Amino acid sequence: xxxxxxxxxxxxxxxxxxxxxxxxxxxxxxxxxxxxxxxxxxxxxxxxxxxxxxxxxxxxxxxxxxxxxxxxxxxxxxxxxxxxxxxxxxxxxxxxxxxxxxxxxxxxxxxxxxxxxxxxxxxxxxxxxxxxxxxxxxxxxxxxxxxxxxxxxxxxxxxxxxxxxxxxxxxxxxxxxxxxxxxxxxxxxxxxxxxxxxxxxxxxxxxxxxxxxxxxxxxxxxxxxxxxxxxxxxxxxxxxxxxxxxxxxxxxxxxxxxxxxxxxxxxxxxxxxxxxxxxxxxxxxxxxxxxxxxxxxxxxxxxxxxxxxxxxxxxxxxxxxxxxxxxxxxxxxxxxxxxxxxxxxxxxxxxxxxxxxxxxxxxxxxx
Length: 367
Hints:
By secondary structure, the chain is an alpha/beta fold. It is 43% helix and 14% strand. The strands form two sheets. It has a seven-stranded parallel β-sheet with strand order 3-2-1-4-5-6-7, with helices on both faces. Strands 10-9-8-11-12-13 form a six-stranded parallel β-sheet, with helices on both faces. α5 links the parallel β5 and β6.
């Protein structure tokens, strides 16, 4: 099967594609030469995709500017040029199907493919549907989604298929040897919480940890705090005169997160679609502090979906304080039955064969 995947800007648009690509190759449905990823030069995809050895082409495009409406004339001009570039790529590659996950680049690519009567589908990984996917819902053959709230936002009900997030199946299939907590001087038998804000880190999460550290160091559980590479040095400086005892380990970043998650009683993090796919695949309870700096506040909607199902506790960043932060961790780590109930609810949200579900839809519409 010859496939063009397209999406860009955020990890939520990229990681589901990378998981499906891996599964297509595992099942020998597509070879390296039969897969192409089309993104932008400025987006995260320009680093992640080529580094994974996936064929990559770019289209120049930009989003609408709400603050400076006059700049949108340039946006419209770029979109028209982008559709011409998309047509060239489609004619050259001759895909059997085009799959989009969101971002303006996927808008141009999938729209042009649909006009050329090439089978098309989109995947929405968040609770709030992005502008590109809302636009494309009318043109594509199928709409795959992760959260039920997203399905309600598409009027094209007959096209909808709940597949879950392909990252879930990828995490479950990694067969990682669990990380031994003893390497950090921690006790593998003790309840442990992982606090992190992504590879770069999250300032609000690091600030609340610094404010709560004196309370947390006295607790009968362990904490692994990944500050993010951007903040590690400043956190280390602030903690240089603080005795953390034996139950708190501060790290810049955890490279192999899927190998650590099964060892965790709970995680504290942002609520991006990729992180949620990983937690729910493994059934790890979560305390979610959604980033307010995202389009349409979609991280809050993602988090509330999990909380509604009993898989997470949500603390809005504006409401975050040491009392509700520490008491939320206590609630999960000091109550085994509550933690087990949350774990069960989390696992029920995960889709263990999400990549295969997406591929099944791809096969159906290319027949």
